[in-house]
Amino acid sequence: MAESFNVKLEDTRYTPEKSYQENSWLGGYDPAYQRFLNDPEAFWADIAGELEWYRPWERVREWKHPYARWFTGAKCNITHNCLDRHINGIHRNKVALIWRGEEEGDERVLTYRQLSRQVLRFANALKKLGVAKGDAVCIYMPLVPEHVVAILACARIGAVHSIVYGGFGAAALNTRIRDAKAKIVITADVGIRRGKRVALKTIVDEAVVNAPSVDHIIVLRRTKPQLELYSEMELDFYEIMENVEPVCEPEVMDAEDPLFILYTSGTTGTPKGIVHTCGGYMVGTYYTTKYIFDMKEHDVHWCTADPGWITGHSYIVYGPLLAGATVLITETTPDYPDPGIWWRIIEDFGVTIFYTAPTAIRMFMKFGEEWPEKYNLESLRIIGSVGEPLNPEAFEWYYRVIGKSACPILDTWWQTETGMHMITTTVGEPMKPGFAGRPIPGIVADVVDKQGNPVPPKIGGLLVIKEPWPAMLRTVYNNDERYRQYWEKIPPYYTAGDLAVKDEDGYIMVLGRADDIIIVSGHNLGTAEVESALVSHEAVAEAAVIGVPDVVKGQAVKAFVILKIGYQPSEKLKSDLTYHVRMSLGPIAMPAAIEFVPSLPKTRSGKIMRRVLKAQEMGIDPGDISTLEE
Ligand code: PRX
User: Fold this and answer.
1) Distance CA 15, CA 28 (A)
2) pTM score, two decimals?
3) Distance (Å) from CA 350 to ligand 1 centroid
4) What are the phi and psi torsion angles at 99 (to 5°)?
5) Is 415 in the pocket of ligand 1 (CB under 6 A)?
6) Using a 6 Å cutoff on CB, does residue 510 contact ligand 1?
7) Residue 115 in contact with residue 126, Cβ under 8 Å?
């Protein structure tokens, strides 16, 4: 890529009322950032000290590029801090989880104590099945309370969970089960989506073929008559909880023991199993939930992601429970039964912190203001966004229509790899539409050229993180080489793979990916994974996939396909291919358009030049695009 490029920036500001900052946990941005700079290790130690540990750390941080260890020597269990710490204090009967199903009145509420009782029993049930510390457990579930129970039960006994989003198809699930060598798959008979049942167990049946590591499938049976379970291998979620002890002492974990693996798209071949650890991830998600979301005692926190994504791991499950919040989860989709449903949920449950994705905001803009206007959204205090750039139009709509021109918007930039928020405009600081903001206290980030030199304001470059942070990934499962690549592109920094630009105040605007990752509705897709799904169809000789702009989704998938001899282009074949990708990878990966082509632009070495396809698609000179991409 070229050294840098010019970007035109607007300078509009919105400043929330002073009281926001005065009453916030963080206080002003500058003094907090200064506290961090004065003594980074003391800064993190103070935060870690707010949590309970079985043994304190010897060192806050050990850094030997590209490997970091945090809170070395310390012993902990994240569920102790998510559950026991609250139950032993005044929060025993505080509501931990509110679940709302699609049907009106379909609600469940679990206090911290009730949640803990379920987790402990399920943890014992897993143990009884032979699951031990370090074993991998795959969770493939709809958004129901049992999903959260399964996650915490794994963490309780030191099993490493690998959650796969319930929207993924059988091939995607199979790859992830096999890579992690999961011993157990936890699923449900169905998920419910727009009044329809999505048969998850059927997908699991297909996905465990050729997955010899799997000993058992645990099934949450939601529908009547109950789905029949056939072999010894299949077990009922609640039956296995029946004859076990209600008490399960937490496994004493080393701070650096793995907590979970989460697969994210890579630029080549198989997805990357990002590994997060017990201590650092716990401190990072606790810190950002309390000090960045500014979580208070009375808050009702609603993050609209799914636990299958990092956003769900960090800000549905771990962060909010560590901070002792009341968490709302729901299986509802934004437009069913009508586009007012989410606003109604905010009114019904008094949601105070709302965290969603730009794609959802743009979809609501299309539905019109009349939907949110039907409901009372006064409970909202802070609203957030994550997953892709929040464009200024969407920012302004979100601020005015949902936040009633009063709520701070946290446009949070981070990644599966970072585990926690990295860049945002902290509560009470002036916000600039289009800009995520500045690195949060604790994080050192910058925009640099290919050599690692900071670029001046208004000049685009690559986003890097300059210092390790507690919730950073520790490795890529089974592929440490890929881990090192993050730190070796522009050493000694961590390269995020994003293009960005700064303004004079140090605010960072994230422009998009610099590599072959497409972000569709905030979900990361690797072009390679979609291409290999296409090529696995009998009619396809070669395929190339690019992201094209989409008003609502941010980007959509467009595929260029060369057919094998003997196959003719047709509309029927297009829909067959689309269906094939849907069944292999899931609906999120479905191409929005397919074009049959006789050849694809390639480099001398045979690598497909996706940027040329993209340039043609967008009607621009490929030279313009080469400055943007690697
Ligand atoms: O390109 C950035 C974009 O999402 C990527 C990370 O995706 P994933 O690992 O799936 O995690 C998403 C949820 C944390 C980033 O490299 N991204 C995420 N948040 C933002 C963003 N782009 C712009 N603005 C954001 N706030």
Assistant:
1) 13
2) 0.93
3) 28
4) -115, 135
5) yes
6) yes
7) no
Class of domain 112-251: alpha beta
- Measured CA to CA, the distance from residue 257 to residue 279 in angstroms comes to 8
Instruction: For residue 592, give every residue at least 6 positions away whose Cβ sits within 8 Å of its Cβ, in sequence order, or none.
Output: 548, 550, 556, 557, 558
| Residue minimizing CA distance to atom 18 of ligand 1 | 387
Residue spans per domain, the chain: 5-77+262-513, 112-251, 517-618
- Cα(287) to centroid of ligand 1, in Å? 19
Successive 10-residue mean pLDDT values, the chain, 630 residues: 61 91 97 98 98 98 98 98 96 97 94 98 98 98 98 98 96 96 98 95 97 98 95 95 97 98 82 97 98 97 97 98 98 96 98 96 95 98 96 95 98 98 97 97 97 93 97 97 96 95 96 87 87 92 91 93 94 96 92 94 78 81 50
CATH fold match for the domains 5-77+262-513 and 112-251: yes
Task: Report the CATH number of the 5-77+262-513 domain.
Answer: 3.40.50.12780
Q: Which helix (H) or strand (E) holds 481?
A: helix 480-488
Residue 26, both tokens: 């963080």
Pick the CATH number of 517-618 from 2.60.40.1180, 3.30.300.30, 3.30.70.1060, 3.40.50.150: 3.30.300.30
